[in-house]
Amino acid sequence: MAIAAVGQICSTSSMMDNLLQCQNLVQKAASAGAKAIFFPEASDYIASSAAESVSLARSLEESDFVQGLQRSASENKIHINVGVHAPAEGGIRVKNLLLWIDDNGKITEQYQKLHLFDVEIKDGPVLRESHSVEKGDSILPPFDTVLGRVGLAICFDLRFPEISVALRRRNADIITFPSAFTIPTGKAHWEVLLRARAIETQSYVVAAAQVGQHNEKRVSYGHSMIISPWGSVLAELGGDWNGGPELATAEIDLSSIEKIRKEMPLLRRTDVYPEI
Ligand SMILES: O=C(O)CNC(=O)[C@H](CS)NC(=O)CCC(=O)C(=O)O
After folding, report:
1. What is stated as this protein's family in its record (predicted)?
2. Would you say the pTM of this structure is higher than 0.90?
């Protein structure tokens, strides 16, 4: 059994301030005995326009934000899962990435968001992620960590159960959804979707979320959660920015996954519908 932590922050366009928020939580998570800490999507920055987002992006090797977290991981002997941007080929778009940094500070895995959030909701959010972001083209196979086998997905990917089912089929124990959900869609769908993904994959779901006002145009829903493979919310943070970053922790018990999967085997009818 090992402890996982979720960190809830409010990123702005100041990468240095965002790094300080994360580093503060890394220390707290390490003091709480956590083996890994999970941060939201776009922890490095949330920009107020597509142009600003592209101009702020740095390669992983040149990002002070990423390097700062690599140092924190090794100094605090903790693994870090964090969402960041990096420039895409051609210079007009960015990649929306999720990194695994091990407790020596090395980036060992990276996933590029598959599904981009293009919405035009009447009297609600209008966002066109595909204007500034290049979509990924593959599922990253789950990998072994101190907590168990981790499968990576990001934010809007949550709405496509195929990716979670594919990660489960490749033996994920824990599926991540670092996010920056909007308030109306968060209120309506966030917890239901997260619990559904945990229940249908019989896996832990770790969802670190951005919270509060990032700039004059963007506000995020918060409510970071860790959910058990039975679908219970084990840890949850609030929806308000209380002036500082916040942390929640939960124990990851791999034997509970084994028990649930044994007691209720979800045998798929792949003779009727395709295997994912
Ligand atoms: O733009 C960045 O830098 C960071 N990326 C995001 O905030 C992304 C794209 S705008 N947000 C979402 O996918 C929210 C999904 C959502 O709210 C839902 O599915 O309801």
Report:
1. Belongs to the carbon-nitrogen hydrolase superfamily. NIT1/NIT2 family.
2. yes
The token pair at 158 is: 């949550």
Q: DSSP labels for 128-154?
A: EGGGTEEPP--PPPPEE-SSSEEEE--
| ipTM greater than cut 0.85 | yes
Distance CA 128, CA 63 (A): 25
Task: For residue range 150-179, list pLDDT tens digits in order.
Answer: 999 999 999 999 999 999 999 999 999 999
* Ligand 1 midpoint to CA 256 (Å): 32
Triad 188, 241, 236: Cα angle to 5°: 55
| Domains and their CATH numbers in the chain | 2-263 (3.60.110.10)
Is 41 assigned a catalytic role? yes
Ligand 1 center from residue 156 Cα (angstroms): 6
pLDDT digit string (tens) for 41-91?
999 999 999 999 999 999 999 999 999 999 999 999 999 999 999 999 998
Helices (H), the chain: 15-31, 50-56, 64-76, 161-169, 183-185, 191-201, 254-263
103-148 pLDDT, tens per residue?
999 999 999 999 999 999 998 889 999 999 999 999 999 999 999 9
Q: What residues flank ligand 1, with Cβ below 6 Å?
A: 41-42, 46, 53, 117, 127, 129, 155-156, 159, 180-182, 185
Counting atoms of ligand 1 from 1, which one is nearest the CA of 132?
A: 1
113 catalytic residue (yes or no): yes
- Nearest by Cα to 30 from 236, 245, 253, 249: 249
Output the residue whose Cα is nearest ligand 1's atom 17. Answer: 181
